[in-house]
């Protein structure tokens, strides 16, 4: 059995799923677990197998009812533990791997045993694969820890982490709606070190119909609550709260325009 399990939650986006699977380099040695979160558009397993060319197996977990991404992710973590995978990598439908992403992240974690979760820099495109902007993140734990109060300093579908951390931090919190990843990363920060790799190893799709944009206000409100729950009196938490309250009232098209301006600066 491979050491790496790629966890992909699926909900009514078969084309995005196939695109993600096709992006995994054929030389990668990783298995894939697809958790169907009660989709109306059912999975075509034959198409899935045809799209996945890497050196690994594909597993399915079909949930009868839609319980939300937090529930789907936690089901995936349970399976990863039960099957004794050493590492869990994340990928979302429509997002793609660049190069030998999992091999690079796996090697990084093997060479840096104090690091238990690693992300990377990320490219963002629209639904037509038109480049929007690059996301350049802090690389080292100390800076990530400080700036985590501004926003997540790890991009969720771009991370790989050691399965063993589940024993110390538990599963994804279910009470921070649309910001389960942000809360999960804060829980990791309290007990473990994290890092990002400078290379662009993942390309994410900014989809106006996606959960992150449809539920943006809910997401920002959850982020504010997470910052409050992890607050200490200092510059980073205070500025982080101020920044997120501003984001709560700004229309997303203005935020996207600012990100594009930074890209071209």
Automatic annotation (TrEMBL):
Residues 6-165 form the Glycosyltransferase 2-like domain. The chain crosses the membrane at residues 238-258. PANTHER family: GLYCOSYLTRANSFERASE, GLYCOSYLTRANSFERASE EPSE-RELATED. SUPFAM superfamilies: Nucleotide-diphospho-sugar transferases. Keywords: Glycosyltransferase, Membrane, Transferase, Transmembrane, Transmembrane helix. InterPro entries: Glyco_trans_2-like (IPR001173), Glycosyltransf_2 (IPR050834), Nucleotide-diphossugar_trans (IPR029044). Belongs to the glycosyltransferase 2 family. The keyword Disulfide bond does not apply. Gene3D superfamilies: Spore Coat Polysaccharide Biosynthesis Protein SpsA, Chain A. This is Glycosyl transferase family 2.
């Amino acid at each position: 059995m491979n050491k790496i399990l790629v966890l992909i939650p699926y909900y009514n986006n078969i084309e995005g799923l196939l695109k993600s699977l096709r992006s995994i380099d054929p030389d990668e040695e990783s298995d894939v677990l697809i958790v169907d979160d009660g989709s109306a558009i059912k999975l075509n397993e034959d198409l899935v197998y045809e799209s996945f060319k890497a050196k690994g197996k594909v597993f399915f977990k079909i949930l009868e009812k839609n319980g939300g991404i937090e529930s789907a992710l936690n089901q995936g973590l349970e399976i990863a533990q039960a099957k004794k995978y050493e590492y869990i990598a994340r990928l979302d439908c429509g997002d793609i791997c660049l190069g030998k992403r999992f091999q690079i992240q796996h090697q990084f974690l093997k060479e840096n045993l104090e690091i238990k979760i690693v992300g990377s820099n990320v490219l963002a495109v629209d639904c037509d694969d038109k480049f929007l902007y690059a996301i350049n993140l802090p690389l080292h734990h100390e800076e990530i820890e400080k700036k985590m109060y501004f926003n997540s300093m790890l991009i969720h579908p771009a991370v790989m982490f050691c399965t063993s951390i589940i024993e110390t931090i538990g599963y994804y919190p279910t009470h921070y709606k649309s910001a389960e990843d942000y809360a999960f990363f804060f829980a990791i920060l309290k007990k473990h070190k994290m890092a990002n790799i400078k290379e662009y190893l993942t390309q994410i799709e900014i989809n106006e119909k996606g959960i992150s944009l449809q539920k943006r206000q809910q997401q920002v409100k959850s982020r504010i609550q997470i910052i409050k729950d992890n607050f200490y009196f200092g510059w980073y938490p205070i500025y982080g709260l101020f920044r997120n309250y501003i984001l709560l009232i700004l229309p997303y098209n203005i935020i996207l325009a600012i990100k594009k301006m930074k890209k071209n600066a």
